[in-house]
Amino acid sequence: MVSTQAVQLRTGSRQIGIALLVGYLLVYAGMLFAMRRSNFDVNESLLVFIFLGVGFSLAAWLLTIGVHPLTYTILEPRSELEIIGAYLVSVVVVVT
Fold first, then answer.
1. Residue 35's domain spans which residues?
2. Helix (H) or strand (E) holding 30
3. Overall domain count for the chain
4. 33-71 burial, b if ≥16 CB within 10 A, otherwise e?
5. Is 17 within a domain?
6. Per the domain annotation, does 80 fall within a domain?
7. Sign of torsion, CA 60 54 88 19?
8. 96: in domain
């Protein structure tokens, strides 16, 4: 039997997710509108959105149906966060 709190948490998370998706789509539509007004070709942006935004997200969703998260504990979260942060900074430096 599912508790009321779990159902409320799931419903709240879903509403937040939908709100974030709608917000993202509004920002994307606004940027396409601004690009169109500035005489940029929006076809390339739409193609990138279809492949990266929709295609990869759909592929990730299909590949992870039925997958459950691993149960593990983080022993030293601060040191692990520092290591991941240093790694991400180095990746950003190399990429840019």
1. 4-70
2. helix 4-37
3. 1
4. eeeeeeeeeeeeeeeeeeeeeeeeeeeeeeeeeeeeeee
5. yes
6. no
7. negative
8. no
**Tokens standing for 59?**
């592929």
Q: Which tokens belong to 2? A: 């599912």
State if pTM tops 0.70. Answer: no
Residues of the chain with pLDDT under 50: 1, 6-7
Structure tokens at 43: 């076809």
Distance CA 16, CA 8 (A): 12
Residues 6 or more apart whose CB falls under 8 angstroms from that of 49 comprise: 28
Contact 27, 19 (CB under 8 A): no
Residue 46, phi then psi, degrees to nearest 5: -65, -40
pLDDT at position 65, please?
93
Residue 32: count of CB within 10 angstroms of its CB? 15
In a domain, 89, yes or no: no
Residue 32 · residue 46 · CB < 8 Å: yes
3-state helix, strand, coil in the chain (%, to 5): 75, 0, 25
